[in-house]
Write a structure and sequence with these properties.
The complex is a heterodimer. By secondary structure, chain A is mainly alpha-helical. Chain A has helices at 2-8, 35-53, 65-82, 84-87, 98-120, 128-161, 170-187, 193-204, 212-217, 224-235, 246-301, and strands at residues 162-163, 166-167. Chain A is 69% helix and 1% strand. Chain A has a two-stranded antiparallel ribbon with strand order 1-2. In chain A, helix 2 runs parallel beside helix 5 and helix 10 packs antiparallel against helix 11 (246-301). In chain B, helix 12 packs antiparallel against helix 14. The chains are: A mainly alpha, B alpha+beta.
């Protein structure tokens, strides 16, 4: 799942300076020189202008010929936009560019704000029709958030993983932890039971534990490694330095573990942000499809 | 005595390495320190965790500190084990299996827990994702979708089906409380329908069938008068062309027939009052209607300022005795200068003159009746309660101020003939002549002896005797006089002559005063009270009661222009007048809906059909 999202996350044009300019790769946002942005803009402006030109009596609403037209366009658009989920799973050759499709998904999805809202005639209320509109807006806004994350976060992800020895992969991160844990375990052998218990607590804590809030805010108050460092330092603060104290080694290892954990947790936070909008976008899309069905059904039922 | 300690370690390929050490003696220590006989490199184990002592066939294990250990899954601090039966001890992440081998006791040590949590097997695809931290996308997608479908689709349909039987019942509505189909309401109902907001099914009766007129008529049987048969209306509207034809086609294919109430009365557009009908909706049919509805008697109308036919007054052909509402009326265009037979003789010009005898008489009576220098309209014509039209002129109140019917004076009291009762008039006249003697001549002497030759005195007595004798017969003459030219009745009324010579069965022709000539449109004098009467009604120039003093459309157009300001002449202060100012689609006798709404806003009484012209279209007959 994680690696899938990793590859699905489209690469955003790297910030480059001076003559070192890489124009080989176009992201889905600037695909074909913003072709779909232009199309969506024309569509939106057409809708806006016609909204003011068409005289609907007594006021604009979804039930006029103009309202039905916008509603039909909007509903078909929603169905097509939903199909991105199918399209991205279908590996097809040739001109069926997923990038073009994604670009169209983004820009036509944005134009749906105009189409859908004009369809309402700004008559909103506590009803199934406004529910469908609200869900549509939630889906669109979560999509905007997703695009924002996709545009800004991958840079952070890379810089967080960068090391003096190059980029650290996810596999390497966990291997680093394992190695540190083994060393800690060995180094801890001479410790007395209370000290050993602190190290053991650090070893036993799942580095991937933590609830959603902790992960998205990158704040882990119950970190045993940090607690072990603090407590062991407190314990030996007034102990004479004998030179061969096993705690010295343990302390060094715990610090290395802590910094490794910090990087891992930052990595998890960024990945969570890259994924979390989809947890809104996708379920709300299906809720929207249901609300849309109820909306259309109700209109014809109470015709 | 001996303990054999076997440390089992796993190689990377999964195979086992066993290292065996032998410890002689009766006791052995277990702990993390390397000096222990059983050395467990485990941070969860104390440096010297437990002591194991052999006593014959038994093995006593005791914790060296307060930290317990497990024996066969139970946590203890000390235990005695039957060597022959063996046991499994657990210290931290290590298991020690006890057994015997000859005389020696074997302790097989295995690490069963990974050194740390991170050392355990991890599903890397899962741990780096949000899996497990948030409800799955798939599950919540189905969950939300199902929730919406049940709440917003299934539930309302269920509600609808449970109250289906209440359709077309005006008095019965659904019980109070929440009904799920109100979720489907696309907007607030208009003010008039706000009580129906909880009762969707009062209009939306059948599933997938658009709102039909019979639902409207459940409540509006009384107040939604028909405009014209729908088939004729659709003919009058003509077949739509171009885009309108397309929308009509789409509407028809989606089971929305044309000509339903809701086409004009759109709902769920917000909690306001309905807008007055726009001129273009009327003009849709009435503009050039004669080309589509060739047999229509109505003139084409599209705009009051530019395209509206001359008014057609409902003129009384002749008044009837009894129910004047049934008197024959004919709608005649004012362009044809129609005359009306109302049974009266009344020259308006004479009565409004400022110089003639009428004016002079008015001046004389001004102290009594408050007349001005000459008579004015208001001296006789009294507005009705709502100031819309005028009450009928009452003879006793208005005419009799001057036209006295007095015929006798007794003391200071005048006896008058009874107006409206010709037979009574005749009887009163007869009674007068029967009960009163002729005036006694002053020279009528007594019955005393007279001197011979006084002829005149005798002649006077004879004349008087004859006069007394014929006194009763004078009544016939008086009756003839009062009904004939120069008589009191004849001045104002059409008199039907007697049936034969010598007979006295004079009759008065029926009289009617029309209070409303424009039955298809509305007019109120109240809105025009800044105008002089005579600026519209040319009464000063009318010498005959049959003149219809109604202003034509030309006069109205000096102020009133079309809805959009269109006019044929230049108007200084134009009053933009939409059709709805005078006409209603569902017309009754009352004020049009537009004006009633204005009255409502001004907190004035709305003029409904029963309030307007209480006497009906024609005034009550005054005989």
């Amino acid at each position: 799942m994680a690696s899938q999202a990793q590859t699905a996350a489209p690469a955003v044009r790297k910030k480059t300076t001076g003559r070192q300019r890489n124009s080989m790769h176009d992201g889905f946002l600037r695909h074909k020189n913003f072709r779909w942005m232009k199309i969506a803009t024309v569509l939106s402006i057409t809708c806006l202008v016609s909204y003011f030109l068409v005289d609907v009596q007594p006021r604009h609403n979804g039930g006029s010929w103009y309202g039905y037209t916008l509603g039909t366009i909007g509903a078909l658009l929603i169905l097509w936009l939903t199909c991105l989920g199918l399209r991205k799973r279908a590996i097809t050759p040739g001109g069926w560019s997923l990038k073009a499709w994604t670009s169209a998904h983004v820009y036509l999805g944005l134009s749906l704000i105009v189409i859908g809202t004009l369809h309402t005639g700004f008559q909103l209320g506590w009803n199934v029709h406004t529910l469908a509109w609200s869900l549509m807006m939630i889906v669109i806004i979560s999509g905007i958030v997703g695009i924002y994350f996709y545009a800004t976060l991958p840079d952070n992800l890379s810089s967080n993983r960068a090391d003096s020895d190059g980029a650290v992969t996810e596999k390497m991160m966990i291997e680093q932890l394992r190695s540190l844990d083994r060393q800690l375990h060995d180094a801890g052998q001479p410790l007395d039971p209370s000290q050993a218990a602190l190290v053991q607590a650090s070893l036993e804590q799942d580095p991937f534990a933590g609830n959603f809030i902790q992960r998205i805010t990158n704040s882990y108050s119950g970190c045993e490694t940090r607690a072990a460092i603090a407590e062991l330092r407190r314990m030996r603060a007034y102990q004479p330095r004998m030179g061969d104290d096993p705690l010295d080694k343990v302390d060094g290892l715990l610090q290395r573990k802590e910094s490794t954990l910090a990087r891992l947790r930052k990595h998890l936070q960024i990945k969570a942000l890259l994924q979390v909008w989809l947890y809104v976008h996708v379920p709300m899309t299906f809720a929207l499809l249901a609300a849309l069905s109820a909306h259309i059904f109700s209109v014809f039922f109470y015709w | 005595m001996m303990f054999i300690v076997r440390q089992v370690a796993l190689k990377a390929d999964g195979s086992e390495i066993v290292r065996q050490t032998e410890v002689a003696g009766e006791e052995i220590f277990i702990g993390r320190n390397a000096s222990n006989g059983v050395h467990l490199p485990d941070l969860a184990v104390n440096p010297v965790h437990a002591k194991m002592v052999r006593r014959g066939g038994e093995l006593i294990v005791t914790a060296e500190s307060a930290q317990p250990f497990d024996v066969d899954g139970r946590s203890v601090e000390s235990t005695t084990i039957d060597v022959a039966r063996g046991a499994e001890l657990r210290f931290g992440g290590h298991i020690i299996a006890l057994g015997t081998e000859g005389d020696a006791i074997t302790l097989t040590v295995r690490r069963v827990e990974a050194v740390s949590d991170s050392a355990e097997d991890k599903d890397e695809a899962a741990i780096y994702s949000l899996k497990g931290l948030l409800p799955g996308k798939r599950m919540s997608a189905w969950g939300f979708a199902l929730l919406v479908l049940i709440a917003c689709l299934a539930w309302p349909v269920y509600t609808w089906s449970s109250y289906k039987d209440l359709a077309y019942k005006e008095k019965i509505s659904r019980p109070a409380g929440f009904h799920a189909d109100t979720m489907w309401s696309s907007g607030k109902l208009s003010l008039a329908h706000k009580t129906l907001k909880n009762d969707c099914q009062s209009c939306h009766v059948d599933a997938f069938v658009s709102v039909r007129d019979n639902a409207c008529m459940t409540c509006h049987q009384k107040d939604a008068g028909p405009h014209a048969p729908m088939a004729r209306q659709l003919d009058a509207r003509g077949d739509p062309t171009g885009f309108a034809a397309f929308t009509r086609f789409v509407a028809a294919s989606f089971n929305k027939p044309a000509g339903r109430c809701v086409e004009c009365h759109t709902e769920h557009e917000g909690a306001g009052a309905m807008e007055p009908t726009q001129q273009r909706f009327c003009a849709e049919c009435h503009d050039g209607m004669d080309t589509r509805l060739t047999d229509t008697k109505l003139g084409n109308a599209a705009d009051f300022g530019k395209a509206h036919p001359q008014f057609q007054a409902a003129v009384l052909v002749r008044p009837l005795v009894g129910d004047d509402a049934k008197a024959p009326r004919k709608r005649i265009s004012l362009d044809k200068r129609p005359k009306e037979n109302n049974g009266l003789k009344f020259p308006h010009d004479m009565h409004l003159s400022k110089t003639n005898g009428v004016a002079q008489m008015g001046r004389r009576l001004s102290a009594k009746y408050g007349f001005g220098d000459a008579l004015e309209c208001k001296d006789c014509h009294e507005p009705d309660k709502n100031n819309v039209g005028f009450v009928e002129v009452d003879m006793e109140k208005s005419c009799a101020m001057c036209h006295s019917l007095a015929f006798d004076k007794i003391g200071d009291t005048y006896r008058t003939l009874r107006h409206g009762q010709p037979e009574q008039v005749k009887a009163d006249l007869r009674a007068f002549y029967r009960s009163t003697p002729p005036a006694r001549p002053i020279n009528l002497g007594s019955l005393a002896r007279q001197r011979p030759g006084v002829v005149n005195s005798r002649r006077t007595a004879a004349d008087y005797a004859r006069a007394v004798n014929f006194r009763g017969g004078r009544a016939d003459q008086a009756i003839r006089q009062v009904f004939s030219r120069g008589g009191a009745c004849y001045d104002c009324h059409v008199v039907v002559p007697p049936s034969g010579s010598g007979r006295l069965d004079f009759r008065i022709a029926p009289v009617a005063q029309t209070s409303r000539y424009m039955e298809k449109g509305w007019f109120t004098h109240d809105a025009h009270d800044k105008e002089e009467c005579t600026s519209c009604h040319l009464a000063e120039k009318s010498s005959d009661a049959s003149d219809l003093l109604l202003p034509g459309i030309k006069d109205c157009r000096t102020c009133h222009v079309g809805e959009t300001g269109a006019s044929l002449i230049k108007v200084k202060k134009p009053v933009e007048s939409t059709c709805a100012m005078c006409h209603d689609y569902h017309a009754d006798k009352g004020a049009p809906w537009l004006l009633r709404e204005q009255d409502k806003k001004k907190k004035r009484p709305e003029i409904t059909a029963s309030m307007a012209h209480p006497g009906g279209a024609a005034a009550r007959l005054r005989r």
